[in-house]
Amino acid sequence: MGFWLPTIIADLGVKSLIEIGMLTAIPYAVATVGMVLVGRSSDRHRERRWHFAVSAACGGSGLVLSVQFSNYPVAALAALTLATFGVMSASPLFWSFPTAFLIGAAAAAGIAIINSIANLGGFVIPFAVGAIKDATGSTAIGMYFLAALLFAGAGLAVAVRLVDRQTTPPRKTFPPTI
């Protein structure tokens, strides 16, 4: 979103750089408020998986809708706002997952591996979307690709049962201690 949002807004027919900058701020302003509200709800309900899945699905839906409404700038901007809200709200929730699977040094190593892959993705994905745009002349296929990744992440989050190590009762040790 950070790399391509100004380009997508310019593709909607906005020509002034100041207008592109101001319109780019709208999705991030909404996402900032939404991210806080989703985080609070997740904390209040002590639940991360469904909050992440719904946020990621909102992000994917927003990207798909932004392509579908590309001829209607106001609707496309609303869809991009939904996409930005979803992506930005899902991101912090994701980081609670590694410690649900791993503990101690394994959790630290898992987080490091995820961070490395994410940084690699942050480098590769803009080039992939750019290559798709160059090949097709449109960002539409690139947006569908990103939406598919978000939907896949939402599906994985729902499919995998996470264990909250802080609320799980301790296991009984054998032999019992007296």
Characterise this structure.
The protein is mostly helical. Helix content is 76%, strand content 0%. The protein contains 7 helices and no strands. It has helices at residues 5-11, 17-45, 49-68, 73-94, 98-101, 104-136, 140-159. The radius of gyration is 19 Å and the shape is globular. The termini are far apart. The model has no long low-confidence stretch (mean pLDDT 86).
Quick rundown:
This protein is an all-alpha fold and 178 residues long. The chain contains 7 helices and no strands.
Distinctive features:
178 residues, mainly alpha, 7 helices, globular
Helix content: over 70%
Uncertain spans = none
How many domains make up the 3D coordinates?
1
Radius of gyration: 19 Å
Find the CATH superfamily.
MFS general substrate transporter like domains
End-to-end Cα distance, whole Å, is 58 Å
Average residue pLDDT: 86
- The geometry reads as globular
Question: What top-tier CATH class fits best?
Answer: Mainly Alpha
Give the CATH architecture: Up-down Bundle
Count of β-strands: 0
CATH topology title = Growth Hormone, Chain: A
The count of helical stretches stands at: 7
What is the topology?
Elements: H1 5-11, H2 17-45, H3 49-68, H4 73-94, H5 98-101, H6 104-136, H7 140-159
Helix pairs in contact: 1-2, 2-4, 3-4, 3-7, 6-7
